[in-house]
Fold this sequence. Notes:
This protein is α/β, with parallel strands linked by helices.
Amino acid sequence: MSTTAPPTAPAPAVPDSERWPLAAVLVVDDEPGMRHFLERTLQPRVGHVASAGSAEDADELLRRHRFDLVVLDIALPGKSGLQWLRELREAGVGSEVVLITAFADLDTAIEALRAGASDFILKPFRITQVLNALKHSLERARLKRENWVLKRALWQRTPPADGLVGRSLAITQLRDTLQRVAGVASTALLTGESGTGKELAALALHRLSGRHGPFVPVNCATMSAESIEAELFGTAPAQGERGRDGLFVYAQGGTLFLDEVGELPAAAQAALVRVLDDRRVRPVGGEQLIPVDVRVVAASNRDLSQAVAQGRLRADLYYRLQVVEIALPPLRSHKDDIADLVEHFIATLAPQLGVEAIDVTVDELNYLTQYDWPGNVRELRNLIERSLILGALNVSALYQGLAPAAADGAARTALPTDLHTLERMHISAVLDSVGGDKTRAARLLGISRRTLERRVAEWSQAS
């Protein structure tokens, strides 16, 4: 068995146009010449190739490493390729498998496809034939990853993002900044208050970048310290169980968005620094380093420089994330976009909810601009969603005891202008409306329960 069987000659150079996305390929063939030929052909195209001369040796490799594609000969000493393929599928291994053989008929080909092979190639083959088959199989592997990401996003109810809405100077400048930053591969740090649209901005960066891989959002604040490293970097096989890929692998060729990055535990911070340095991830409990082509975009609604000063965030991680920093404006700084945002949310949410659109009067729009929106655009979106369900603009939900200005110009209730006081009033009102249920309140506010509990604890300490 050999994990990187030395070729008899240097691998031929290939032009950039013929390079494929980074992938790991395992070649299983009992002929050394065939193994070396496939290694030399694939290595410059995919980045990592390993080989084995039998199914037993290949199984050992697959238990210690992960592979996107397996090129498997049917006629092997000991266990046949077909038998091993069936065992892989029974064990839940989803890697693409391309079978090759010098002796086959139609029945064998049908049996191979039923066993779970992606393709079937007869020896002797032309180099273009095998390259096309392997390239198509790797493309299927990429589509599987993207499909998994989409299902995960739907499961998390990730809101759809159709682009930035607004024509104000603040949004125009933000749009121009994202356009400039999208063209580089450097890490980016998005800062701003909760609800300002940092995930939307990250998605805009991804779409404008032209990267062909998926956009994978991760909320670091909602994941436990025990599981987050496994989620990000994957796990190596242990005690007879096969490992699983992490989100870095699923984001291959695309963008990994780390929201609330300041909540990462110390061990995960150290591992992330290593990944940003050498662009390889090490699964938890394993030794294999997996090359990744992933752009990292991080976000935080807290002052990360203060987190560094307090020892809660590694300085080296902060500086690696802060290569490009983009500050998202709070809604109170571009209230002239509120009318456009209200129109956008009504148009997109009403069909999703299956309800009729509502009319918003000029007086009601003027009233919305008098509020400072401590929850920013997310709070406005949640207000419109509740209003659509109720059939009319539900402005009383903004905070207790406040109603729209009377049509005859009567004086409205005096409001505090301090942002923290308004935020406390609003969160307290939402908590009261759900009987103190913090999980429901956090969902309505569009923040994590952990953030809500931290706010309440801060108020208790201050009082």
